[in-house]
Amino acid sequence: MTRFSVLACAALVFAQTSKSPADPELQKITQMRAQSVAECNGFRERGGRAGASDDPARKWAEEFWKYREEHPGTPGAAQATGLAFAWMDHGQMYEVLIARADLLPLQDSLWASVIARVQDSSRRRGDYSSLFSRAQRLLDASTTPLIKASTHIALGKAYRDLGQTDKARQAFEAAAAEAPNAPAAADAERFLYEMSQLQVGQPAPRFEATTLDGKPFNSGDMRGKVVLLNLWASW
User: Fold this and answer.
1) Which residues make Cβ contacts (< 8 Å) with residue 18, sequence separation at least 6?
2) Most buried pick, 2, 35, 87, 91, via CB within 10 A?
3) Residue 228 covered by a domain
C-alpha cells in the first residue's frame, strides 16, 4: 500500500456503510467518499502539498460539513460529519476543526474519534487549552465508556508531549480501566508500555527472533556489543 493510499484510507475510519446501503442518502455519502478519496489521492500523487489552498481535502471537508447541515439528525449526516473532520485533519484545517468540534453535542458518539483529532490539532497549533477544556466537559457529561476512554487517551498524549509523565500515566491508566475490552484499552496499555520500557536512555527490551538463515537469535547475547536495530514494517 502506498503512502497515498494510507492517507486516503485514514480518512475512512468513521462509520463505514455496508457495500450496498439501502438508504439512498447513505449511497450518496458512499459515492461522495469514493470521489473524495480519488481526488485527494490524485492530488498527493501529483506532488500536491497537504493544506495548500488547492488541496481537495479542504474542499471535501466543506462539502461533507454542508451535507451535515442540510440533513441534520440523519444517518447520512453522521457519516458526513465524521468524514468532514477527517478531511479537515488531512487538509490541515486545524483552527476550523477545533471550532467545529464545539458544535458536536457532548453525547455524540463521534467524540470517540473526534477527540483524537482535537488533540492532534492542538499539538500542531502548540496550544492545548482547547483540548483540556473540551476533554473535561466530555468526562463530566458523557456516559459512554468508549468516549471517556478516548478522551483519557487524548489527555494522556497531551500530557506526555508536555513532559508531564505522571499525569500522562494516570490518564492512560484511566483509559484502560474505563473500557477494558475495547481497542482503546489496548492503545492505553501500549502507551503505558512505551513510557515504562521504551524511553530514551533505558535498556532496550530483550527479544528473540530467527535470522534469515534460520538460526535462533537472542538480543541478550549481544550485551556489551554495539548493536544497530533497523525496525521497519510493510503493509
Assistant:
1) none
2) 87
3) no
Buried b (16+ CB within 10 A) or exposed e, 19-40: eebeeebbebbbebbeebbebb
Please indicate, yes or no, whether residues 11 and 58 belong to a single structural domain of this protein.
yes
Q: What is the pLDDT along the chain (235 residues), one digit of tens a residue?
A: 344 444 444 444 443 444 445 789 999 999 999 999 999 999 999 999 999 999 999 999 999 999 999 999 999 999 999 999 999 999 999 999 999 999 999 999 999 999 999 999 999 999 999 999 999 999 999 999 999 999 999 999 999 999 999 999 999 999 999 999 899 999 999 999 999 988 888 887 888 989 889 999 998 888 888 888 787 776 5
Q: Report how many domains make up the chain.
A: 2
Is there a domain that residue 231 lies in?
no
Is 224 inside a domain boundary? no
Q: How many CB atoms lie within 10 A of CB 178?
A: 22
User: What cell does 198 get?
Assistant: 521504551
Closest CA to 58 of 2, 5, 120, 11: 11
Claim to verify: residue 81 and residue 158 sit in the same structural domain:
no
- 62, 92, 122: which is the final residue of a domain? 92
Q: Which domain holds residue 37?
A: 1-92
Pair 70, 105: CB distance under 8 Å = no
Distance, in Å, from the CA atom of 157 to the CA atom of 160, rounded to the nearest integer, reads 5
pTM greater than the 0.90 cutoff: no
